[in-house]
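Running this now, will post back.
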Amino acid sequence: MAGLYLHIPFCKQACHYCNFHFSTSLSLRSEMLEAMLLELELTRHELNQQSLDSIYLGGGTPSLLTGQELEGLFEKIYALYDVADDAEITLEANPDDLSKEKLKILRDSPVNRLSIGVQSFAEADLEFMNRVHNAKEARDCIEMAQHAGFDQLSIDLIYGSPTTSDVQWAENLRTAIEYGIPHLSAYCLTVEPKTALADFVKTGKAKPVDDDQAARQFEMLIAATRARGYQQYEISNFARNEQYARHNSSYWQGDPYLGIGPSAHSFDGARTRRWNVANNALYIKALRQPKPEIEIWSEQELLGPEERYNEYVMTGLRTIWGVDLSKIRDLGEAFAPYFLKVAEPYLRTETIRQEGEQYVLSGSGKLLADRIAMELFWEG
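Update: finished.
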């Protein structure tokens, strides 16, 4: 099985923290969708006729698309690919886009899962982040989506913001959990380079992220979700009844996926990774060239055994599946002994637990996930 990702690079306005590729100008919208249809044609053989287990529309703001635009994309996908009957088909959505009318359009489309960018149920947080929607819309859209029959729902929340007190974070978690949403993604606010937030912090207009506050709110997140039956199956992702995000799980487990659209990444599941040019006009222009595949791929890399080891350790440790020693052995005879040697201090302190051939982070280890992974990287 394989996954398909489509990057819709348009937003109504720029969130202060966001460093993804997007444009607030919709002037190239029709040309962009035409180009994406062309790229779907161009790359139709790259997954070696594997069935699509998941389709994910991200961005940007895919919920800006009209019913007709969505229909055009799905018609092309279903014409070119074998889509599994039970495929997970996710659309990222902003709360302000999810009117009753829009939800009906989405219900009539192949979309069967919504990932809603709520971020917070507090006005102060939303204003600080420069989100388009308000706190009422954050609540209303969930209720409308559930009423429309979307049982597969996920919402994003952000903690660690200077405007998010512990009391407010607890209220955000309580609100989300009481809606009975089966999947939550919660991320610490990060000050990314070349964002408005980075400029605000640099000039003193905003406080930097407080590491102690972020760690405290992360622990609150784990406690609140565990108490209500959620499983933390990845550092930032929580699910009830094993309703894991199939598409993202395939990334973490190294499955193949194809990325369509500007800045989209692709991976063949073995050694080759590439990503498209992160420029709307250049992407569109490239698809009109005689050899567009040369023009749209801004870079391609072949992963050697060391890179594959490092990537597997980084992604595997973030999940409940952990790192499987047998998979490390498959990368070369030197890797398993090296991993066991560098993991030993963390096994002694029980930040990593051994479960047969699996090595997983403990609760305390999850607070140090990135640092531990870097310490385990190959240096042979």
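The longest strand covers residues 83-93. More later if anyone needs it.
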